[in-house]
Amino acid sequence: MKQTNMLPRLLTYIGMLVLVMLAVLPFVWMLSTSLKSQEYILSATPQLIPDPITFESYTKLAERIDLTRVIFNSLFVAVIGTFGQLVVASMAAYAFSRIDWRGRDTVFLLYLSTMMVPAVVLVIPQFILIRSFDWMNSYAALIVPSLFSAFGTFLLRQTFKTIPKDFEEAAFVDGANHFVIFWRIDLPLVKPALATLAVFGFMGLWNSYLWPLFVARRDEMMTLPVVLATLQAGPRSLTEWNMIMAGAIITVLPILLIYVFAQRWFVQGFISSGIKG
Amino acid sequence: MNERCYGMSHLNQRSKWGWVIFFLAPSLLGLMIFIVLPILSSLWYAFHDWNLLSPPRFNELDNFKELLADDRFWRALQYTLMFIVAYVPPVFVLGLALAIFLNQKIRGMIVVRTATFLPVVASWVVVSLIWKWLFNPSYGLVNIGLGAVGVEGPAWLFEPNTALYAMVITSIWKDVGYIALLYLGGLQSISQTYYEAAEIDGASRWASIRYITLPLLSPTMFFVLITLLINYFQMFEQVWLMPMRDSAADRQLEVVVTEVVNNAFRYNRMGYASAMSWVLFAIIFFITFIQLRLQKRWVYYETD
C-alpha cells in the first residue's frame, strides 16, 4: 500500500464512526432516559450513562398498563398474522406460477393492481366493514384484513417461477398431485423467500399503528405502538419521558433483535417491497 | 390455445381447475371481501353524506365541492407539499451519498450498514417519540447540544414551522438507510469494468462518479424519487404524534392523511373523508404518471 492512501483511509474510518454514532445515539438516549428517575431527566446537564440506574420507569409503566396483555396482543397478532400471510400468499403464488390455466396472467395483473390503492383509501371502508361484522376490538379485526396483501404473492410467485419444471414432472409421473408438489417440493425450495416474507410481515404487523389505532380501542385489545402513543400526558400534567422511553424500549427491542439476527431476510424484503412500487 | 399441463394432468382438465380454485380460494375470497369491496364502497361513500348513525344520504358531488372550498384541506395539502419540498431533496442526495460510502469494500463496513438500517426497522411510533423527546425545548438533547455551541435552540415542536423541520430531520434519520439500500442495489449492478477502464484513462474518483455512476444509476434514482413521493404524500405518524399537544403546531399542522383521519374518526364524516382520500389517490396517481412520462428525458437505460 502506498503512503498516500493513508489519509483517505483515515477519513473513511472517521466517517464510519460518525455514521454509527448518528444512527445509534437516539436509541442509546432512549435507553438511558428509561433508566433514569424523573428528577434526573429534567436536567440541563445530560448524563449518557445514568447515575444512579433505576428501573422505576418500568415499574411505573407496569402499574399504568397491563403490560403482559399488551405484549401478548402484539405478539399474537404479529405471529398469527405472519403465518396466515404465508399460507395465503404461498398458495396463491403456486396457482399463479406452477399451474397453467387460461387467463392466469390477466387475473394476476388485476390482483397486483390492488397494491396501487393507498392504505388511507382502504382504512375507512375496512373500518366500516369490520364494524358491520361486529369485529371491533377483536383479534380478527387486527389480523384478518392484513392477510391479503398482494405483495407476498408477488414475491413468492417470482421465486416459484425459478424452480425448474423437471422436478415436478418427475413427481407427477410418480402420481403426486398438486398439493404434494406444492408442499413437498416447491415450498422447501423457496425457504429463503418464505423467511423474507415472514420477517417482513412480522415487522409490518408489529409496528403497525394506523389500523390498530381505530379497531382496537379497548385497553385490553391494544397493541404496543397504540398503547405507547397514549402514554403522553395531557397539556397540564408533566409528560413522564422515562416511562415513555421504557415503553419504547419494550416496543422496539424485539424488532431490532430480530433484525440483527435475520438481517439478510430484512434487506431482501425491503429491496423487493421497493420493487413493487 | 390448448394449454399444456405437466405430465399426466393434461388428461384431466376438470381436476386442474379444481386445483386452481383450491389454491386461489383463500386469497381471492379475502381480496374480494377485504380489499376490492372496500375500494368500491369507499368510492360509493365519497358521493354520500354519512355520519355512521343515520343512513347514508346521496349528495352528488357535494363532498368534492366542499373539499375545494375547505381551507383546512388546502392547508393540509400545502403542509404536505412543504414537507415534501423540504424532505425529498436532502434524503435523495444523502441516501445516494450514504450508498456510495457503504459500497466501499472496507472491513467493518457491515457494522455501519447494520447501524444505519436500525431506524428503518423501528416503528414510526417509537421513532416519533424518541425524537419528540430529543426535540424537547428545555431538556432535549438537540437544544442542549445547540446550547453547548452557543446557539439558542427554538421551541421545535410547539411552532408549525420549526415543527415541520423537526419532523423533516426525524424522517431523514429514519429513512436514509432505506433509500441507501435502494441505491446500493443499483450501484452493485454497475459493471466494475467501466471503473477499471476509467482508471486506466486516468479519470479522478469524482469524474468516475459523475460520468459513470450517476448516469447508470438514473433508473434507480427515478425509482427512488417515485417511492419517496408516493410514501410522503401519505405521511401520517410523525404528524399525528410529534407536535406538542395543544400548541400552535398541533392546531395548525395537518397533512392530507391526518385530515382524512380527523374527518373520519373525530367528526364521523365518513363520506367527506372518503372523498378526500380519493383526491389524495388521484394526486399520487397523477404525479406517478407524470414522472413516468418525464423519465425519458433524464433516465439513461443501458442498452446492449
Provide a descriptive summary of the structure in words.
The complex is a heterodimer of chains A (277) and B (304). Chain A has 277 residues and is mainly alpha-helical. Chain A has one domain: MetI-like (MetI-like fold, Orthogonal Bundle), CATH 1.10.3720. Helix content of chain A is 72%, strand content 0%. Chain A has 15 helices and no strands. In chain A, α4 crosses α8 (150-160), α4 packs antiparallel against α11 (191-207) and α9 packs antiparallel against α10. The longest helix of chain A is centred in the first third of the chain and has 31 residues, at 67-97. Chain A is globular. The mean pLDDT of chain A is 90. With 304 residues, chain B is an all-alpha fold. Chain B has two domains: 9-45; 62-298, MetI-like (MetI-like fold). Helices cover 73% and strands 1% of the residues of chain B. Chain B contains 13 helices and two strands, in the order αββαααααααααααα. Chain B has helices spanning 13-45, 62-69, 71-102, 109-121, 124-134, 141-148, 160-188, 192-200, 205-233, 237-241, 248-252, 256-266, 270-298; strands spanning 48-49, 57-58. In chain B, α2 packs across α13 and α3 (71-102) packs antiparallel against α9. The radius of gyration of chain B is 25 Å and the shape is globular. Classes of the chains: A mainly alpha (277), B mainly alpha (304). At the A-B interface, α1, α4, α6, α9 and α10 of A face α1, α4, α5, α6 and α7 of B.
CA-atom Rg of chain A in angstroms: 24 Å
Indicate the percent of residues in helices of chain B: over 70%
Helix content of chain A: over 70%
Radius of gyration of chain B: 25 Å
Main pleated sheet of chain A: none
**SSE string of chain B:** HEEHHHHHHHHHHHH
Distance between the termini of chain B: 34 Å
Q: Number of helical segments of chain A?
A: 15
What is the CATH domain class of chain A?
Answer: Mainly Alpha
**CATH superfamily membership of the largest domain in chain B:** MetI-like
If strands are numbered along the chain, what order do they take across the biggest sheet of chain B?
1-2
Q: Helix/strand-derived class of chain A? A: mainly alpha
What count of helical segments of chain B does DSSP give?
13
User: What number of domains of chain A?
Assistant: 1
Q: Identify the CATH architecture of chain A.
A: Orthogonal Bundle
Major beta-sheet overview of chain B: 2 strands, antiparallel
